[in-house]
Amino acid sequence: MITPFRRNWSPKELFDALTPAMFAAEPSAVRARWDKLWPDLYTEYDARYLKQELVARNLIASDEAAAFFNAWAIDEERHTDGFIRIIELVADGSEKDLRARLEARTHDFGPIVEHLKDEFSLMVIIAFDEMCTCRAYAAEKPFYDALGNNTFHHWLREVIADEAVHSMNAVNVIRARYRDRIDQAATILDNLIRAADNLRYSGTFVLDYFGAVYSKELLADSRLATMRNIAKPLIV
Question: Which domains does the chain show, CATH number per domain?
Answer without folding.
Answer: 11-231 (1.10.620)
